[in-house]
């Protein structure tokens, strides 16, 4: 009997010691969050913003993801953010790549980040891609006592359905996986009210809408910085080079601007081209043949004598369909339009948006429930947008207020004609949209994040 009491007392004491030790470790980690992206960190702006906001609010952040392209400098310079690169195996199919990358994630988390996961009360995972990241994070959380937060950007199965078809076994399996594993989270964020309602109605998942907002570095670009950017890009892309050299050797000229070397004054060139910008991941959910067909119609209007400017069209981004569309662009032989497809440094992309005259968005959501963050960034730069219409686009683009919505290439061509008629016209529709964007009381990411996400993460 006494021996039994001693054993029970020893067990109770051991449990108390373990609980006390656990709480001590937990207290040390109370301000630590694991951010997981089973994709390229540099091409995951929303998750970068989450990490930066967490760091600014005093959290230490471990960011797990692939480091294929450079993240924003702010992320790299923060002493509160540690980026742990995951090894990605190249040249694999989408499905097998996800599975192998998931295995890499599990190994990296297990070997390199075991102590961090054990110390972190929260892991924040992006979906998509969530296969098998969500399951791995949930399992690690079960072992370590941490809670899982999922940020729903879209549905992975709907994106896979664009490639394989909605009835493909892999797509059906992916949908089952998302439905099952999505319910394992302690907190869910999503990007639109439409997605929030769909998650609740069809998935039984309660989520909080956190709209994308532009970061502070997305703003109108001063003319002197525009000139510096144009001169930098002109060294690689002919579309940014001046058509003729200035007669004065003391002048420096791009296709759009001119700088007096003595005074440093920068001015816009008279008769300059209009600058149209679109950004893309070159995937199936963006049909750039719409833009190319609209540009053909725009060129024909110029040939017919319409008062329209020459056009420089810059399409930024990387992705699987870039080579396909690059071949189509080369076949067009435009005379009044120049198209270039650069991959910009993270710091140059906001400067380009802030220098442009019009943005075009061809994103059609695979689920109809997410919004293009590229438009959010454009609005942050007070750049009006023409966007192809889909189910919930009205939650972001207000037709005739901050831009225009179109259905096909005919409608886009008509909008380009209207917006660029008598360009640059101070009283034109384009400038009115810019004025509306400047006067709108749009929150920036940090302000919005502190109001919505910070209380939720803190409570979790």
UniProtKB/TrEMBL annotation:
SUPFAM superfamilies: UDP-Glycosyltransferase/glycogen phosphorylase
Chain segments annotated as transmembrane: none
Domain Glycosyl transferase family: 274-420
Membrane topology per record: Single-pass membrane protein
Top-rank lineage group of the source organism: Eukaryota
Pfam families: Glycos_transf_1
Pathway: Protein modification; protein glycosylation
Family listed: Belongs to the glycosyltransferase group 1 family. Glycosyltransferase 33 subfamily.
Annotated protein name in UniProt: Chitobiosyldiphosphodolichol beta-mannosyltransferase
Organism: Tursiops truncatus
